[in-house]
Amino acid sequence: MARFALVNPNWTFTGSTYFGCQEPHFPLELLFASDKIREAGDESLLIDAQINNFSIDEVKRQLDAFAPDYLVIPTAPSYLFWRCPQPELRVPRAWFDGLTANSIHKILKVAIGPHSSATPSAALRKLNCDIALRGEPDLTLSQLPLKPWPEIDGCCWRDADGEEHISASLGVAQMKTLGSLDFADYPVELHSHRHHVFHGKGRGAELEFARGCPWACTFCNKTLFRNSYREREITAVLEEVDRVIARGADYVYFIDEIFGVGKNVIKLLEGIAERNVTIGFQSRIDLWSEETLDLLGRARCISFECGIESVTEQGRDELNKNCRMDTERLSELLIYARKRIPWVQANLILNEHDDREVIRQWQQRMKAHGVWVSEPVPMFPFPGSPLYQKTFGAPPDDYAWERAHHDYRSKFDPKGYSDIQEQRPATIEELETVSQGKA
Please, how many CA atoms are within 13 Å of residue 354, restricted to the half-sphere of its CB? Predict the structure, then answer.
């Protein structure tokens, strides 16, 4: 019987260009994987060091008592932020090193996440780990003791001689095989954060209805993991909603790349409307109509984040949004949504086609109707995204994160960053403690 330790580090982002939320979130990738490991007959210990505010030493004492065969650490916090991760691997490297120091038996170190997906060789080197899984690890982690590694989708590893074996495939989970999480071994009660809610009080949880997205926007970093659109069984999701409500949550944030695709989401919302819970998510406003926005109001949606990206049709076309509505219709729907939902947010991306005065006028109009509009956010060319390919003309290589980070800083150090980012981010070499290689 194999033993897996699944550890979510106690994340820190000082000096990083990271612009995701820094609060703890449910590590759904570890929760699903833990269930599959146990279904396969092996043992799993899941430790969320961030929500418990554990140090490396505190977690190491638990691991020493458990004596795992595999130590699994994600390279970014939560599936929610795999698509906009911190570029550097400072935190997972520190946790791999600290948790395996002076171990009395061999522990295989396994990296999962966007870095191991986009640049597995660099992840193996930087993290000094044994295995890097590309793509979604929900099902592939449980296969490590059961199958020859070349037969596992997305499995990359270093052998005893240090030779790397890099898979060209990706792990992909069939969503209907992911059962309902029971959260029996997870401290739901410690989770007070309500993601993307900026008013009132309550207790939140993060769940998942669908993965992937049917679109391929230039800026979106989902190609090498969570790419194709798939839905879970509605009954499984509603069971999870009921379980977190029973544990004290009154708000659920759906981490889906794009919430609102297809007819099944309507059935899900009708089920949620029957429960005493509020919800939030991110979406595209062009997926909704007045009728379905009314349903969102009945389902007690309190946070609706919409990717508008550009205030012009030319700008949206440049970003490959494939949006069939004009700006006026998008504006009408945002205003209609705000009449039913307390927080409606329209996100913009820095785009050379958009005139700043036109942006300012549109922002003022939206804000006059209570819709919050972001300042245009600079795009990071995440390795594996269409933007990376467009910017550098080649797929990501072992130097991809450094190349993207240097390009980003060179463009935005003079102009300034988003107001939710460090205004003086360090270089990736300063942030990481491992050899960087060469361009």
Answer: 27
